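Model it.
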Amino acid sequence: MNLAENFEKIQQRIRAASGRAGRDENSVQLLAVSKTHPPEAIQAAMGCGQIFFGESKAQEAKAKIPLCPGRARWHFIGHLQSNKVRDAVELFEMIQSVDSLALAREISKRCEQAAKKMSMLLEVNVAGESSKFGYKPEQLLTELEEFNKLPRIEIQGLMTMPPFSAGPEKSRPHFRRLRELKIQCEEILGVPLPHLSMGMSGDFEIAIEEGATIVRVGTALFGERKKPGRTGSQSLEI
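Modeled.
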């Protein structure tokens, strides 16, 4: 595995997809999904110019992040349990996977205690898969204004994981639906939401064509990760 070559190939693909969509390549942020990968891999990626990293387990991140260069910037992208919110608030600058108003309230409470604000994305289960977390679109629109009552959070946009598919084009309708949903959210809130986090190693080019501002790429950068024990359906998608 040559990480530097992988990184350059990903950058080329981002540039090409941005060009096809008539977008500035700098409008797309690469989030390197570093879960299960050691601090040495993060350091190697940073040597290529990568700054943003995504972790999906608070316990793993709590052990790993202190061993990584201090200029790395961290996003939480996994399902966040309420008993791990305090760690997430301490470790991350963005939580991309907020899937309930109750979780947002807990984050706001912990941020109040820590005297900080937290940027967040609202995770949407666009396809309605029972195996995945995330808001149903209609529920999100109903509850959206309640988020504005929370003093320590800043909604930056939406995130989704489409159904796993060997054909990236099959993800396009789900990415398009998330983009349309973001427009609806902006109309309700009366403010622009800057981010759409969508697209992974197999389909991030399609996501960029449909408006992604953050693409979450792990395997294409770091190579296949080791999967000790039983893995859930969501582990296939980064």
